[in-house]
Amino acid sequence: MILFPSPFRVISEQPRRVVEALAVASQLGSRRNAMIASTALAQRRAELREVEEFFADLGVTPEHPGTDRTSREAAATAVRL
């Protein structure tokens, strides 16, 4: 049983706790950012789907950049990764 811890041990444990707390805080921030990005992406997809359905009901094909098949496939692949 150690009644008094070594001063070297006390000093060396403090930086470890600081680093662990920093790692946890960093991960929580990253998780929060990922959730915000995921939510924004889901909202944009829903809006795009709604617009495409609207134009499909009108029988019109919208002409705007980024909607060709290659772009959509690349976006779908990126989301799956």
Structure notes:
By secondary structure, the protein is mainly α. It is built from two helices and no strands. It has helices spanning 7-58, 69-80. Residues 59-81 are annotated as: Disordered.
Count all strands and give the number. 0
Integer average pLDDT: 77
Radius of gyration: 25 Å
- Taken in chain order, the helices and strands follow as HH
Identify low-pLDDT runs: none
Overall geometry:
rod-shaped
What level of helicity do the residues show?
Answer: over 70%
Task: Provide keyphrases for this structure.
rod-shaped; 2 helices; 81 residues; 79% helix; mainly alpha; single chain; 0% strand
Quick gist of this model?
The protein has 2 helices and no strands. The protein is mainly α.
Furnish the topology, listing elements before pairings.
Elements: H1 7-58, H2 69-80
